[in-house]
Design a protein that fits this description.
Elements lengths: L9 H20 L15 E4 L2 E4 L4 E7 L2 E6 L5 H9 L8 E3 L2 E5 L5 H38 L4 H34 L2
Antiparallel strand pairs: 1-2, 3-4, 4-6, 5-6
Helix pairs in contact: 1-3, 1-4, 3-4
Main location: cytoplasm
Protein name: Ribosome-recycling factor
Keywords: Cytoplasm, Protein biosynthesis
């Protein structure tokens, strides 16, 4: 926020609300929906040359089909280590080695697991809504200080409406993203 107590920085509020949305999208990407995505390998690290390294730094990760992820490992000696890291990662995926290419067939999710994932997605969305409301509260607190510092009643109302409009748009975007993610998860 700026030094002038009667100025409200809507760009800062917008940036912070967008940050909550970005974090939500990142969390949604980590949910395994039965569809292949290179992001499911982000938490997996390989012991490469004495150092724990992300898989995307020892090979090329591709998604050639909706239910298949492939890793083209650059160093032949690393293939076994990459395969072992995936097996031990707890992702529930069985890697298939074909030379320097490792194929990861993504199994379909059962109905119970799909319902669990929709609940997890809803929790992520609620966290994003709370983050957006916290940004709104910060903006409203600053607005109260600005009013105490001499902001006119009309300006106060205009800024209040602007902040509320930003909040409403951000909450609507969270709700839309949740709806799309739940639809994707429940898709058979």
């Amino acid at each position: 926020m700026s030094d002038d107590p009667t100025e409200i920085d809507l760009d800062d509020l917008q940036r912070r609300m967008d940050g909550a949305m970005t974090a939500l999208r990142h969390e949604f990407a980590s949910l395994r929906t039965g569809r292949a995505s290179a992001t499911i390998l982000e938490p997996v690290h390989v012991d490469a040359y004495g150092q724990m390294t992300p898989i995307n730094q020892v090979g090329t990760v591709n998604v050639p089909e909706p239910r298949m992820v492939t890793i083209n490992v650059w160093d032949k000696q690393m293939v076994g280590k990459v395969e072992k890291a995936i097996r031990e990662s707890g992702l529930g995926i069985n890697p298939v080695v074909d030379g320097t290419i490792i194929r990861l067939p993504i199994p379909e999710l059962n109905e119970e697991r799909r319902r669990e994932l929709t609940k997890v997605a809803a929790q992520y969305a609620e966290q994003a809504r709370v983050a957006v409301r916290n940004v709104r509260r910060d903006g409203m607190d600053h607005l109260k200080k600005a009013k105490a510092a001499g902001m006119s009643e009309d300006d106060h109302k205009i800024w209040h409406d602007e902040i509320q409009e930003l909040t409403d748009k951000a909450i609507a975007a969270v709700d839309k993203a949740l709806e799309e993610k739940q639809e994707e998860i429940m898709q058979v």
